[in-house]
Amino acid sequence: MFRPFLTGPALWFLAASALAAERLPVDDFAHFAAFSSMTLSPDGRTVAYVQNLKGVQEIVLRNLETNKNVRLEVPPSRAPWIPQATRIGWLNSQRLIFSLAEGGFSAVDRDGTRLRGLTGFYRDKGQSGEAEIQSSGVIHSFRGADEQSVLMTEYRSPGARYPGEFQVLNTPHVMRMQTRTGAWARIEQNPGNVEYWLPDSNGAIRVALETKLGTARTIFRAEPNGPWTPLPGMDWNDTVNRPLALSADHRTLYVNRLSDQRRWAVYPYDLIQHTFGEPVIAHELFDIIPNDWRSFANGIPLQGLVFARDRPGELLGAHFMTEFPRTVWFDPGLEQAQAALKEALPGRINSIISISDNRRRLLVQSWSSADPGTYYLFDTEAKTLARLLACMPWIDPAKMAEASAVRFKARDGTPLQAYLTLPPGRGGKNLPLVALVHGGPHTRDVWGYDPDVQFLANRGYAVLQVNYRGSVGFGDAFQKMGRRNVGGTVQHDITDGVRWAIQQGIADGRRVGIMGGSFGGYSALMGLALEPDLYRCGISIAGVTDWIELIKDKAEMFPRSFGFNVTLVGDPVKDEAQLRAISPVNLVDRMQAPLLIIHGRDDPAVPFSQARSLVTALEKAGKPPEFMAKYNEQHGLLDYRNRVEMYQRIDAFLAKHFPAE
Fold first, then answer.
1. What pLDDT does residue 353 have?
2. pTM score above 0.90
3. Residue 661 CB contacts under 8 Å (≥ 6 apart), including other chains
4. What percentage of the chain carries pLDDT values higher than 70?
């Protein structure tokens, strides 16, 4: 097994600063990053990034030699800008492709000319009179004479579309797109059950993942236009495997599969011998690339393989998560560069996010749990490190709180991992504490800058984020422990984390609250129902209140989601009694503590009716909650003004029912 070169904080527990933090305005936490998604051109001469100021989104292209900027205002979309959905990358040193919302993809030259809408409603319908083309992104960029062309996924019939323009796209075709003219042609027709396709280094589609009734197999063709055949050891009845990428020489397929320790690891598969080799990278305790989810922090992907941009298929390294973000480099030059960055910027995560073709210039984002990050340009030959931009210039990391990784055992002895953030200047004992619960539930909390955490810490609260059973990244068995236990063991894990903090003397047992979004909002509601003597108040943002109605609603809009939800939560018919017993709308008689409910009226993931039903039930029980509902908001609040109001409401709610002083 390869011994990783690890990068990350050296300390698990960081002491609070000596002075109490000043009370910062809620605006500081409500605003998304001003500068994000920066990427370096292949020749290392230009960076492109998203600028988000005063509600206006722009693509900025900065010439690193002249320091001159070209700004391109992004046309308005039919949906709010979602930072996590940003796609931006260089096709070559002269042309950029980007998508910031559901308007689709566009391409532009580095000097701001030749802007062309390629997909979605940004596409110029006059050029062909065709129906709208949807795409989830680029899967291959050609070089040389064809460098203006790309391969993209293509969806002609979205899996679902309803108010808010939220879409689920399934079973893609593959199209070849000329990014300057917009001319395109479908090169692979989906037979109806291919989840995704993989090209080789020349852009020929050679690998695909087929799905059927919850199972999957990998098919392959030895020649670009040859017949498809299943790969031995990766067929329907074999161990679950997920193909990741083809090597540069087309002999090896990198595959995600379970190790002997039942952790997701990256394996090489020999396409000639049809055999698996020893893991390329594996960890005894943590998944390298979880099968169901990939985490982000500060806009940085935390799990995935890194390939050379100029030589597709050449594996350079891998990002993965333990308690902290880690990186392993297989390229000696990048390993040396990472070590130099650690020396120059100690105590931080220094993510190499973009590399010039000649490997001389590296774009780096340096960040921590108290810092959204700063972009740097590292010249590996000149040994210079130039500061470019801070993602959130108004954030002073010295005034923020650092998160620490902690471990404890659940009531049945199961080891659990969590993050604990202490309010600066208030010591580490007898603190008011908020249990902040992540969504999913098949996601996880990670170490990184989180505005919710920082807002609560700035107001004087310790924050505990428990990676309960069902969270990804901790092995197959741990994730499966959460299935059909969302209202039981999962909630007990959160409670056990809070009681651990009380037993350690960190939290004041008389001053504990619970808060979360989506599934985390559900957990906040369940916390009030299951532990009425533990929590002083609760805050639910876009929380689930009725599992039966939600599963039925999701099945109607997304038929493919039904099996997943039944496996994760339960069957609305066969398990009706159990689902009613774990639905907060039926547990209002147990809820005693004050409650704040926040919900977007156009939420496609957890419909607004979920919040409305609970509010009605609480009002009938004589326990009216505080309620904030906003139009034109989907799953969570994205509009800056609404986010300011949200933090103001949370601030006032906590001060009224759960003061930190």
1. 97
2. yes
3. 460
4. 91
In the chain, where the domains are located: 34-183, 397-546+583-657
Structure tokens at 17: 């600063």
* Token output for 490: 């999962």
Please say whether the beta carbons of 447 and 403 come within 8 A.
yes
Burial of 445 (0-12, 13-18, 19+ CB in 10 A): buried
CATH T-level fold of 397-546+583-657: Rossmann fold (3.40.50)
Pick one of 2.40.128, 1.20.1070, 1.10.287, 1.10.10 as the CATH number of 34-183.
2.40.128
Letter string b/e over residues 55-84, b meaning 16 or more CB atoms within 10 A of that residue's CB: eebbbbbbebeeeeebebebeebebbbbbe
Whole-angstrom distance, CA of residue 50 vs CA of residue 39: 10
DSSP label at 126? G
For the ranges 284-288, 513-517, 548-552, 597-601, the lowest mean pLDDT is seen at: 548-552
Q: How confident is the model at residue 251 (pLDDT cuts 50, 70, 90)?
A: very high
Determine the Cα–Cα distance for residues 263 and 288; give it in Å rounded to an integer.
8
Query: Are 383 and 340 within 8 A, CB to CB?
Result: yes
Q: How confident is the model at residue 165 (pLDDT cuts 50, 70, 90)?
A: very low
**Residues 153/136, Cβ–Cβ less than 8 Å:** yes
Mean pLDDT, the chain, rounded, equals: 91
Is pLDDT above 80 for 502?
Answer: yes
CA nearest neighbour of 320 among 336, 301, 337, 333: 301
